[in-house]
């Protein structure tokens, strides 16, 4: 049985083919085939969660016993940054600027390699302090005030990211099956909770490996099919099409964000040793850039075939309208798995931050089980994110907001590798930088160029704060 969908009442735009033929493209999805692929994905995800829960301990639930090897670590790091939000935003920029949007992932790759230099030091100190989250790390290093500031920024940032990923996954599932967006988003939340509640961080790492395999298979199959049937103009391959300011903005965002990404830090804490950690970051940098270059074919092909759609719709449009029977159903389900690939990490990280904060800042919860508290927070955040995602779906604005928040933390994090920073200086550096982000938000001017304002503001505030605290 097949279900037919149309983007509008008119026929889909015609596609340019390499051999000069123009063919109208019917939008048909075989619901039985898609259901089979979808069912297999859910079964595999739940089985992974169940196996991860066996012989469960507090340390295993929170950080996979701090024994994750290089391959699983690289897969987990890569899957966390090639998720539904990143893919949707990336293909939107590919749609607008062609291959020059690759700078978005080049910046991330450079950030991985830069973090590689400091990761062993972070790992050693985290093990010595027995910390479980990035804010807890800086609570031990700087003090209570800075720890709370880190917690506030990262909880807000990752909660926004969870909303974005559930929005994207809901839209993708709605493209596969005739489901209302709200129901589709709720299904995504239920899937990630099904294995997170069972296996915790160990389940995150194992599902990330599975999802990386899906990403590679999806990207290669879609790109090979579209590349063989689409004439790509040379203009779309121009790496300078975005202009120097946007390119620089992407490089700064990608490079600096990796240094202060709490999910990366949590994976660093969970790594087995220094060798595994260095190898994982190197492999992750290569994997992300190669995958981004491969999947960019889908964005360019979508632009050529559907020149009048909104850029943010390029992701779903390409998979739903440009692929043949079988590959379309398979690709959409794989795309859905990718859309959920960091939702589990985000949910776990934001929940574990609050768990450790409750235990560090209050006596009442100091002896409470980390597993119990984290599970409660996971359910709470997923339900709250789904509620907000029904009302607000501007993923680009949400993405730029969380990027600005992340950059506000960079000066304090980087400075801590070299100097003993004042708790008060770090606190006010973060507060002032976050305040500066309110300006582009108020004037609806969130772009890669404007959100980086939090970086120099945070740096200047930190320098002034350090000077005042020592005089």
Task: Give the radius of gyration.
Answer: 22 Å
* SSE string, helices as H and strands as E: EEEEHHHHHHHHHHHHHHHHHHH
Q: Number of DSSP helices?
A: 19
Choose one word for the global shape. globular
Major beta sheet, specifics?
A: 2 strands, antiparallel
Verbal overview:
Helix content is 73%, strand content 2%. The chain is mainly alpha-helical. A two-stranded antiparallel ribbon has the order 1-4. Strands 2-3 form a two-stranded antiparallel ribbon. α3 (70-81) crosses α8 (181-227), α7 packs antiparallel against α14 (343-361) and α14 packs across α15 (370-391). The protein is globular. It starts with a strand and ends with a helix.
Write out key terms for the chains shown.
471 residues, mainly alpha, two-stranded antiparallel sheet, two-stranded antiparallel ribbon, globular, disordered N terminus
Summarize the structure.
By secondary structure, this protein is an all-alpha fold. It has helices spanning 31-52, 58-63, 70-81, 84-97, 103-129, 134-141, 144-176, 181-227, 244-259, 262-270, 274-305, 314-321, 327-339, 343-361, 370-391, 395-407, 410-415, 423-442, 454-469, and strands at 2-4, 15-16, 22-23, 28-30. Helix 6 runs antiparallel to helix 7.
